[in-house]
Structures are given as C-alpha cells and as structure tokens.
Amino acid sequence: MIKTFGMLHKRGDITQEQFHAHWRGPHADHAVKLVPVMRRYVQNHRAAKPYPGFQPPSDGCPEVWLDSLESAQRLTSMPEYMTGAFIDEPAFMRVRSDGVLVHEKVMIEGPRLARDARPVKVLYFLKRNPRVSHAAFREFWLERDAPMFSGGKHLQRWVKSPVVGEAYVGTEPLYDGVEELWWADSAAQEQDASAPADRTVENFVDRSATRAMFVDENRVVWEG
C-alpha cells in the first residue's frame, strides 16, 4: 500500500480558523465520495503550537492511503473528484496542492487508534543533504533505530515513509521522506524532545530544507 501527503496553503484573505473549519466541514464531505479509491483519509491540521527549530511545510497535509500508484493517478481524474473536491478547493486554499507519494513503513505499531483519539503527533518532511545520494540517505534513515530529530523512548506510534522512487524518475521530489511520530500526551513528547541530538543526522539531512509541525488529526475515512 502507498499513500500521499498533500501540502495545503490557505487563501491569503481568510483566517487560519476559517481554513481549518472549511477543510474539516464542507471539504471533508466531498472527500468521502472518493472512498472507492481511498482506503483511509486523514486531515493533518497544522496545530497552533509551532515546532521548535523548524518551519512548517504548509497549513495542512491531507494523508491518503491507496492500493497502488495507478490508484493515485486515478484519484485526481475521477468524476467524483472533478465535480466535488476539485471545485471546492478554491473556497479555502491556494490551488494547486503539491506533495509526495510514499511507501509506509511502520516502525512501532502501537495501540489501535480510535477515530476520535487525539494523541500528540508531529510530522517531519525530510530533505536529504544534497551532498549524499538518494540511496545513501534512504539506507541511513531506514536502518536507524531512532527517529531523526527526537528521542523515541516514549513513542506511542512511529512510521517512516520514503518516497516512491518510480513516481519521480528524472525529477526531484519535494521531500525525500516523511517521518510521523505519536505520543500519548505532551509530557511524553517533551521528554523525548529533550534527548541529546544525534549529530550524524546532519550529514544526511538538509535541516534548512526539512520541515516539521505539530498536527491535529481529523480521521475522515478510518476503520470502524
């Protein structure tokens, strides 16, 4: 299974509150019509609390699980999309969204998340150091037994998602991978954030081009 992360940027003439309210409300109703292709759909709303040391990638990141690359290509050409979500996008966001297509690699499964569960979640959009190859970055990252920029002692769930290489032949992806971290509460997250930094990470990651943010999850299409 693969998934996409989009990058939504609010219109300049509306507030953050208006952006998030429209995305959660009318736009989510349109997205539900795409269930024949989507397996899950989660809205990652940028939280008001900034993540220290990093710029956010966007105002929100839709996260969509799909069966195949073909499903991803089909999604944005479906009549249900073209006559619904596509038409609604200019009502709250700058069009068009960019993003990345990734494979999901679950490092810590954790307990099953209920649709209304609200753990603390951070998204990291990783950009490789341009001095290293895509292969070297991927090997370093995927073989690590700890997150790139946080301790992992108190993690509830942890997912690494490298980009789908065949989707970017001859082009440079916006990011090289996405790391998702969940904690039960802010106290657990803050304890891991205080862990000593691993300086070797800087050899493989371009910190200035990497983005991160706390997010509030809205699980629109979810098991159960």
Low-confidence stretches: none
Q: How many beta-strand segments? A: 9
Biggest pleated sheet: 9 strands, antiparallel
Assess the beta-strand content as a share of residues: 25-35%
The gyration radius over C-alpha positions equals 17 Å
SSE succession: EHEEHHEEEHEEHE
What is the distance, rounded to the nearest whole angstrom, between the alpha carbons of the first and last residues? 19 Å
Order the strands across the largest sheet as they lie in space.
4-1-3-2-9-6-8-7-5
User: Could you say which structural class the secondary elements and strand pairing correspond to?
Assistant: alpha+beta
What's the overall geometry? globular
Overall pLDDT confidence: 93
* CATH structural fold name: Alpha-Beta Plaits
Q: What is the number of independent domains?
A: 1
| Oligomeric category | single chain
The name of the CATH architecture is 2-Layer Sandwich
Note the total helix count: 5
